[in-house]
């Protein structure tokens, strides 16, 4: 049976996969107080666990991008889901920092496949003018996954303990996999797709200057690393991804330390914050798409949104660090900060599909995501050290304020570098292997 607008079914699959990806990732942050009490972890121990995940995530991204470009989106995404789901369940067997570190590393390897596969699927299924919106929709799954974690983790823990949380949330990936295998195929092979929609999807294979974009099936990493466009996407991930991971993993602990938030029950404060990121992800993609429809050049529209994000983040982070003493004021400001961050993430991802032929999009996203994970290796170690120092001095909240200030400045630095790298970058018309 032919289905109209089948491409939006694909987005719903990508969205749900991303929800599960971030649900599995967020579990340990919500269980942090419980695990710290049971295993006597320090802040630095927890930071080391996050770095183990980031290190494996970096390796996984570098491998997965190339792997998905080679075997295709359907198989590549399937392999990633199996690996991260099994790894999530294996956390239940860990009994030491080393054991959790091994499980986190395995989770990082598997979860690395999510975004290269999803961005490649968008490039396969959507015309250029809809890609930012489609990316924003599936990327909003990061927020929904965090919200779902806030609901499920306390409920499961009350009945099955922390081990049950890891087992049940990890198993959700296998349910999703059945739907993915049934519904996904590239447009040219998808029998449920109407002829009109296929023509619409394939109707803008020319770039903005009217030049046909051509590429062989893959390009060498050496070639990709030689391009300023690649380094622009790398910058957007290297400097900024660790900030979002900090929000995702340490935010529950921040509210617990600063406002005595009880993480063993459903937290409406954290749900409010993570729900806001859904709005930011979709709105960020929609806004740049509107600018393009109103005549802005594609890259200028993406960078315009990134600049607005950078300025807003600087203002918000400084306000949190210097002036916030009320819990709900902190909730409001951080909700805006993480929502605005998602607008950044959506446009950085979409820049990759804008500047590169779809045959190498997963490789570029994988390289950039690996770079973000490298930043994620170092930043948790810094966070752990800062928090341990301030904790020893009896002012743990002050340590968080220092980190918020660092985060705010970083966005503007990242935008400046991206702008300089892409200001005179030529359009990519052909890539050699």
TrEMBL record:
Residue ranges spanning the membrane: these are 49-68, 75-94, 100-119, 131-156, 162-183, 231-251, 271-292, 304-324, 330-349, 361-382, 402-421
Which part of the chain is the Major facilitator superfamily (MFS) profile domain?
10-426
Question: What lineage, starting at the top, does this entry show?
Answer: Bacteria, Pseudomonadati, Bacteroidota, Sphingobacteriia, Sphingobacteriales
Q: Which PROSITE patterns match?
A: MFS
Q: What is this protein called?
A: MFS transporter, ACS family, hexuronate transporter
Give UniProt keywords alphabetically.
Answer: Membrane, Transmembrane, Transmembrane helix
InterPro entries assigned to the protein according to its UniProt record, in alphabetical order? MFS, MFS_dom, MFS_Na/Anion_cotransporter, MFS_trans_sf, Sugar_P_transporter
Main localization of the protein described in the UniProt heading: membrane
Q: How does it sit in the membrane?
A: Multi-pass membrane protein
Q: Where in the cell is it found?
A: Membrane
In its UniProt record, a GO molecular function of this protein is:
hexuronate transmembrane transporter activity
């Amino acid at each position: 049976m032919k289905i109209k607008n089948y491409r939006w079914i694909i987005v719903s699959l990508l969205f749900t996969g991303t929800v599960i990806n971030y649900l599995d990732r967020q579990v340990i942050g919500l269980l942090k107080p419980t695990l710290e009490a049971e295993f006597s972890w320090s802040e630095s121990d927890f930071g080391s666990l996050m770095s183990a995940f980031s290190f494996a995530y970096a390796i996984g991204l570098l491998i997965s991008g190339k792997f998905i470009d080679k075997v295709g989106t359907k198989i590549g995404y399937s392999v990633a889901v199996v690996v991260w789901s099994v790894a999530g369940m294996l956390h239940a067997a860990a009994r030491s920092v080393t054991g959790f570190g091994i499980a986190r590393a395995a989770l990082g390897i598997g979860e690395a496949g999510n975004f290269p596969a999803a961005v490649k699927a968008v490039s396969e299924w959507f015309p250029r003018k809809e890609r930012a919106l489609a990316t924003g929709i599936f990327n909003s799954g990061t927020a929904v996954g965090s919200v779902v974690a806030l609901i499920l983790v306390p409920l499961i823990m009350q009945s099955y303990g922390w081990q049950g949380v890891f087992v049940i949330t990890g198993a959700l990936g296998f349910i999703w996999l059945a739907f993915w295998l049934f519904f996904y195929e590239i447009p040219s092979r998808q029998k449920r797709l109407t002829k009109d929609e296929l023509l619409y999807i394939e109707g803008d294979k020319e770039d903005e200057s009217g030049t046909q974009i051509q590429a062989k099936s893959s390009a060498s990493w050496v070639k990709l690393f030689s391009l300023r466009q690649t380094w622009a996407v790398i910058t957007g991930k290297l400097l900024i991804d660790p900030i979002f991971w900090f929000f995702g993993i340490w935010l529950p602990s921040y509210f617990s330390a600063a406002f005595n938030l009880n993480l063993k029950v459903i937290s409406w404060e954290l749900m409010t914050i993570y729900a806001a990121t859904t709005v930011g992800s979709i709105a960020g993609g929609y806004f740049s798409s509107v600018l393009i429809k109103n005549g802005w050049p594609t890259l200028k529209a993406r960078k315009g949104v990134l600049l607005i994000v950078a300025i807003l983040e600087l203002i918000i982070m400084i306000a949190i660090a210097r002036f916030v003493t009320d819990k709900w004021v902190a909730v409001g400001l951080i909700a805006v900060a993480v929502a605005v961050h998602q607008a950044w993430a959506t446009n950085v991802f979409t820049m990759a599909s804008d500047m590169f032929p779809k045959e190498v999009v997963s490789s570029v996203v994988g390289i950039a995501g690996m770079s973000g994970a490298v930043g994620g290796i170092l930043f948790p170690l810094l966070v752990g050290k800062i928090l341990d120092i301030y904790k020893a001095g009896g002012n743990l909240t002050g340590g968080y304020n220092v980190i918020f200030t660092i985060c705010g400045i970083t966005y503007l630095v990242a935008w400046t570098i991206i702008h300089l790298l892409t200001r005179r970058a030529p359009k990519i018309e052909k890539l050699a292997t």
